[in-house]
Amino acid sequence: MASLRTDGVTVVFGGNRALDEAGFEAEAGRITGLIGPNGAGKSTLFDVVSGLRRPQSGTVTLDGHDITRATPAQRARRGMARTFQRLELFGRLTVRDNLLVAAELGARGRNSARTADGILQRIGLTADADTAADALPTGAARLLEVGRALAGRPRVLLLDEPAAGQDADETRRFAALLRDVAAEGCAVVLVEHDMGLVMSVCDQVYVLDLGRIVACGPPADIQQDQTVLAAYLGE
Ligand code: ADP
Ligand code: MG
C-alpha cells in the first residue's frame, strides 16, 4: 500500500488550473520523482500534500487515512516533513542550532543533541557546525534544510528542488543520503530539475505538465517517453 497518495487533486488560481486532477503515489522505502517544466504545478502539489493549500477537489491519503482536511501540524505529527524551494532556515542560528531546533520539535523523548550531531554527520556539515546558516553556500544550505527535515525522523519526506545550487560532489553525496533515507523505510518524494540526479536515484518518476500527470514509470521508460519529451521540449 502506498504511504502517500493523491487522487484527482485540482487547484485553480483565478482562471488558471495549477493542478488538474493530479494523482500520484509514493511508497515507503522508495524514491518517487516528480518532474515537469517551470509552472507545471510541482510546488503547488507539495503545498496540497503538506496542507498549506486546500484543493478545490481531490484527496490526499497518508497510510490509508484521508488527511485532505488535516492541518500541516497534524500531518507533521503523522510523520510528514518537507523542504521548500525557497529556503526556510534560521539564518542567524548556527548550522547545529538549526538542527537542534528541528530535533527538539520532533524529539518524542529522544536526545536532541545526539540527533543533531548524527544528522550533521549524515549531511556532511560537521565542519560547519558553528557557522551561521546564512553564511553557508547554497548547496550546503540546501543540505541543512534536508537535515532539518530529517531531524523529525519523517516517514514521508517531500523535497522541493533540494539539489539546486549543489556542486557535483554535493549532489553525489546527496544521492547517497537519499538512498539511505529510503532504505530506512521513508517514502521520499523528489521534485528536482537535475535530471541526472532524478534518473539515477528514483524508483518511479511522475511527469507533470500544465497541472496534469502526463506520464509515470521507472526512469528508463520516462527518458524514452514521447509525451515527456514533448512537455519538456515543446515538440
Ligand atoms: P512549479 O513548482 O512546477 O514550477 P508551481 O506549483 O509553483 O509550479 O506553479 C503552478 C502554477 O500555479 C503556475 O502557473 C503558477 O504561476 C501558479 N501559481 C502558483 N502559486 C500561485 C499563487 N499563490 N497564486 C496564483 N498563482 C499561483
Ligand atoms: Mg516549484
TrEMBL record:
CDD domains referenced in this protein's UniProt entry, alphabetically: ABC_Mj1267_LivG_branched (cd03219)
Protein name as catalogued: ABC transporter ATP-binding protein
Entry keywords, A to Z: ATP-binding, Nucleotide-binding, Transport
Domain of life: Bacteria
SUPFAM superfamilies named among the record's database cross-references: P-loop containing nucleoside triphosphate hydrolases
InterPro entries per UniProt: AAA+_ATPase (IPR003593), ABC_AA/LPS_Transport (IPR051120), ABC_transporter-like_ATP-bd (IPR003439), BCA_ABC_TP_C (IPR032823), P-loop_NTPase (IPR027417)
Span of domain ABC transporter: 4-235
Gene Ontology MF term list: ATP binding
SMART domains: AAA
